[in-house]
Structure formats: C-alpha cells, structure tokens
Amino acid sequence: MKKQDSINHSLKIIVKSSVFVFIGIFLAKIFSYAYRVIIAQSYGPEAYGLFSLALMVVSWISIIAIFGLESGLIRYISIYRGRKEKNKVNYIFRKSFYFLLVTGIAGGTLLFFSSSFIANNIFNEPGLTLFLKLFSIALPFNVLFVSFLSLLRAYQKVGWSIFISNFLINFLYLAFILLFIVVGFGVIAIPLSYVIGTFFVFLVLIVVLKKQVPEISIKKSKENFPLVFREILSYSWPLIFAGALWKLFKWTDLFFIGFFMTAADVGFYNAALPIALLLSFSSDIFMQMFNPLIIKEYSKNRVNNIKQLSKQVGKWIYMINLPILMLLIVFPGAFLNILFGEEFLVAENALRILSIGAFFLSFNGISLVILGALGKSKTILYNSIIISVINLILNILLIPKYGITGAAISTSFSLLVLNFIFTFQVYKKTGIIPIRKKNLNVFFSAVISLGALLLIKSFVVINFFSLILLIAFFIFIYIFLILIFGSFDKSDVMIFKSFLGKFKRKNK
User: Fold this and answer.
1) What DSSP designation does 119 have?
2) H or E element: which one contains 100?
3) Of 59-73, 117-131, 490-504, which range is least confident?
4) Can you give the residue range of the structural domain that contains 288?
5) From the CB of residue 300, how many other CB atoms can be counted at a distance below 10 Å?
6) How far, rounded to the nearest angstrom, does the alpha carbon of residue 391 sit from its chain's CA centroid?
7) Overall domain count for the chain
8) What single-letter DSSP state applies at residue 423?
9) What is the pLDDT of residue 1?
10) Confidence of residue 13 (pLDDT cuts 50, 70, 90)
11) The predicted structure's pLDDT at residue 349
C-alpha cells in the first residue's frame, strides 16, 4: 500500500507541475506558430526558407559555443547550493558567464564574417547573407541565456524560467514582427524581430536574476575555485557532441533540402515540421517533473515505482497523441492551408510522414530519462551517433529523388529506429516497457472514432469552421469510447478525483 501511495503521490506531482507547464508552453507554442505563420504568409515561402536556414546555422554554432554547460551548471550549482556553499555557486556562475561571453562573441564574429561564404557557396542563396549577419548579433545573447536560465532552474525558480524561455521570448518575436509589418518594413523585418526580441529578453533576464537571486553576481571576488570549474568543464564537454548530434539530426533535412533544392522548398518543409512536432507537446509537459522524480526514485532503488510511473506517463502521452496523429494524417492539407496558405499544400505528404515520426519521438523522452538516471550518458551519445548517420545517409539518397517527401521519410524512419533502440536498451537494463495493456482499448477507441470521422468527412466541404466541428466531433466520440471501453485505470481515476476535489473546495 505504501508503494502505491508513493506512486500516486509522484503522479500527482507530475500532473500538478504539468498543468502549470502546459499553460506556459501552450501559450509559447501559439506565439511561436503565429510568428512562423505571419512570416510565411506575409513574405512567402522563400523568405520563410531563408529564416529557417538562418536559424539552423545559428543553432549549430550556438551548440559549440555553449560547450555543453547547460546541464553541468544546473547540476553543480544545485549541488553546492544544497551544501550551502554560496561562494562556490557565485564563482561557478561568474566563471561560466565570462566563459560563455567569450565563446558567444567568438561564435557571433565567426558567423558575421563567414555569412557571405555560407549563403553563396553552401546554400547558393545570396539573400541569406543579410539574415546571417543580423542573426550573428543575437548569437552571444543566446549563448549567455544558458548561464542565466541554469541559475534560475538550479534555484528552483521554475515559473520564471518557463515564463522567460518559453512565453516571453516568443511573445516578443511575434510583437516585433507585427510592429515592423505595420510600419512597412520589408524582409528585413524578419531578422530584426528576432534580434531585437532576443535583446529585450536578455535585459529582462538580468532584472529577474537581480530580484530573484540577489546574492549571486558576476562581480570579481577574492575567492577562486579553479578545480571546481575544471570539473564542470570536464563533465560538460562530452555533452557538446550529444547536443551537436541532436541538432545535426534536427537540422539535417533542412540543410540538404537547401543544398539540393531551393529556399522555397526549405520553407515548404519547415511549414510541415512544426505542425508535426505538435505531437511532442504532451511529452514536453510531462517530462518537466518526470525527470527529477525518476532520478529520485532510482537513487532510492525503487525500480517498481519507476516502472509504474513510466507506464502511466507513457499511457497519458499515447492517449493524447494518438488522436492528434490521426487528425494530421487525415487533414494535412487543411492544417497547412489554414496556417500557411495554399502554396504550402505541396507539403501534405511530408506532414503525414513527419507526424508518424513525431509520434514515436514523443515516447523517447521516457526512455531517455531512465537511461540518464542509470548514468548511461555514453549509451545516449552512441545512440545519437547511430541515428544521425542513418538520417544523414537517407537524406543524401532520398532528397535528390523525392524532395521534401524524401526528407520526411528519412526523419521518420530514423526516429522509429531510435525509439526501438531506446526501448530495447531500457528493457534490457531494467525490464521496463512503458506500455499498459489498456493502450489497446485506447487504440480501438481512436480507430472507431476515425472511421466515423472519415464517413462524415466525405459529405462535408472542408474549411476552417467545418474542420473545427469535425475535430470536435472526433474528440467527443474518442473520449466517449475511451469511457465505454474502460481505458482509464485506478491511477487515472485517483488523479481526476484529486483535481475535482480541489476545484470544488475553491468554489465553495
């Protein structure tokens, strides 16, 4: 009974934090998608493609400049804060700030002076030069964000961290692009909105840190602990490769589409990609608290608790994502047309295929957290190498022949392989497979709901309002069948009753 109480308590913590994270990330996603949609609709697929290529290049350089310090700073600041050694915390923050300042400026300078070469010789897109030069100004600020946000997270200022890194930055990008469009700026409005938005977020971060963590500063101190910072660098530098490989995997498609095809094709593909990545949303909100809880349970050798938590969270992700996957497969054109416009309909098949890959990607977070708790960082790195090589080869083979559809096939197949590898490794080391038997009931509920949707769809002309009604009908039937088939278990009921009880008490 005590074990079940512990599991239920952990599940409540996950759900409570997930509700808060959901609100922050949900609003951030809305602003982020609106920002992209406005760029695509106001300036066309070619400008949107240039924006996507510039983001990709900045992302690669940033990974190297950050030097893997994000995880290292959170880990070591938390350790020394727990030991109440504030002098070491201050030293770590100060050293990391100056270290990242130097690497950030170096990365920005490198990008500024190589922008013309990258634009003309690698992508054959002269218009990309302006984007890269302006983006290079924002790169040092992006790098410095790491030290600031790591400090907030280490001090458990989760609310401020989510507000700044998810909500505020996307809101400002959107606000500035709208302002520049109204003023009448041309394509330069795109990189300007990104640079100015980034700068303002940097200023907000400084103010927030002074208010929330006033005892920490970058001022010089007589106390020095060089061995501590060397230890952090030693811990962090291997993470460069894992992070770089994941970024490489994430941006490989866009790179080779830009290399073999045109900036417009990059824009078409990058319209489908963020829509497909809606399927990662449920994983993002649950993983915020799932990660520390699993590490805590592992430290106490509670393998059964890890198993139950993994299965339950896996079921929640599956239950949320399965109907979204089906809707994206049935209505890819409707989503692309409503969000980006008719000229982006060429990405319909790419969206279908990418949605399948994103569906499997959403489950990788569970296995990744478990492997991390087991200390298998090298295993994660090897997996990243394998999957990056597979994706690289497939892109080179498929994009010249099949275009953006070939890129989608490459990514989705690679993610499917990665999911299989992660699941197999976790099962081999722990005996855990994050799947419940009731997932089969959820599957039948979704399939029957899809059949009803397809039947009605054949009699309806698809537009914005009819799409909303069809989705609402599909979700209603899906939830109804989940209840009829008994897909909810005791933990689901317990969580629901807990929140219902709190809601009633608040309204008394």
Assistant:
1) I
2) helix 86-117
3) 490-504
4) 2-436+489-506
5) 10
6) 19
7) 1
8) H
9) 43
10) low
11) 94
